[in-house]
Amino acid sequence: MTDRVRTRFAPSPTGYMHIGNLRTALYAYLFAKANDGDFLLRIEDTDQKRYVADAVDFINRTLAAAHITANEGPDIGGQYGPYIQSQRLDIYKKYAEELVEKGLAYRCFCCDASEERHQEEQEGKSFGGYNRACRDLPQETIDQYLKEGKPYVIRQKMPLTGETSFNDVVHGHISFQNETLEDQVILKQDGMPTYNFANVIDDHLMHISHVIRGTEFITSTPKHVLLYQFFGWNPPTFIHLPPVMGKNEDGSVSKLSKRHGATGFSQLVDMGYLPEAITNYVALLGWSPKSEQEIFTMDELIAKFSLDGLSKSPAVFDYNKLDWVNAEYFKAMSDADFAAGAKPFAEDLANALGDAKWTYLASLLRTRVSRYNEIPAQTGFFQALPDYDADLFNNKRNKVNPAKAAEILPVVMDIINTVEEWTPEGIDDKLQPGVADSGIKMGTFMWPARIALSGQKVTPGGVTELLYILGREESVKRLQAGLEKAKAAAE
Fold this sequence. Notes:
Layout: E1 6-9, H1 19-34, E2 38-41, H2 55-65, H3 89-101, E3 105-108, H4 113-122, H5 139-148, E4 153-156, E5 163-168, E6 172-177, E7 185-187, H6 195-205, E8 210-214, H7 221-231, E9 237-241, E10 244-247, E11 253-255, H8 265-270, H9 275-283, H10 298-304, E12 315-317, H11 319-332, H12 335-342, H13 347-365, H14 375-383, H15 402-416, H16 424-438, H17 442-454, H18 463-470, H19 472-490
Parallel strand pairs: 1-2, 8-9, 10-12
Antiparallel strand pairs: 3-4, 4-7, 5-6, 10-11
């Protein structure tokens, strides 16, 4: 084993990248980079029944978006490849047969496909209960079965007494009684290895120094430790991360799942979260930088990351906190960059306004939204004035009602008719002195104008901004319609 820090992310291509996967990849990447080491990507695709055709591309796109870059991997290469398990079957067969020759594994002829499938489903979750019927078959029986071509799997021969222990960076010393360990399948009938076998072979041959994964694999780790012992290899350092939890409606928490909302990286991006913000937030789910800092660049995360900052307590995924982190990233963006990122979420409006007005509107939205998908709700009135109730003209604080609105709106229209240059500055140059000349308080004057222009109480920007974005013709049309609505309500 090399002294160099080498970590890996080894996903199964069976679906999308959920938050737990992303955190595992991120921590492995950060730890490697913080120690000038190597981070590997390995695809563990031996469970062909659950294989999803485009999952590998999905994994690659997610890692790229999160700025997690491997030193070695399927599309990068490296001296320890191939980095796809289905391309390493001869390697697994060689080592499985070696264990059989040493008497540390055996051929099992009583395992059918359904039992193999059961073990696949249970790997990393709990122990099975195979009765070891083939563990001590006479050699002549084995030879006869082989001669007949009877299918078999290869099982690891677990010790029946004693205990197997290992040290975990997060959880400390952990021991298991060997009598609780099933003689697990390590090579299936079709020649495919099981996860519990292949990951040990690959981690050793790829010189992985630190294995970072979820706590669900703690119960499988004694099986892995025994395999290292059987081969005479030094095991890596184990770091088992506690689960990421979600908040339930009743206030309790349970393991993060779809019922809690979006749990996949791509789903969160589709909701309008920035990849950098997601990565930043996920880094804090179970790791403390031991400071008050919460917003990090990737370089800052690498510089600060250490294993002693990991928590053994489950982390709770808080969408409100993610909103806050994302909003902080928005605030740090330029108006142009925010406008470009926001455009796919309001493309019809952006195209209708044109680049200049869209960028101007985006500048108003940038500090008002927590994620891009909030934009349509705040801007829909620009495309179509909602059928609002005249009751919106009522505002006790500003002493406005429909009758007062009917007095003010004609004044507003008179003022904007004098605007020569339809820009925010040009509009404001006429609007501000016009309000002063009217003798009406600013808040009282602007309230009915805002309602008539937008049909809602809260808008991105004030009256000047609304007038500019809507344009002269549409603004006059809406103000006139508002005047008619106010008059009708005041009668």
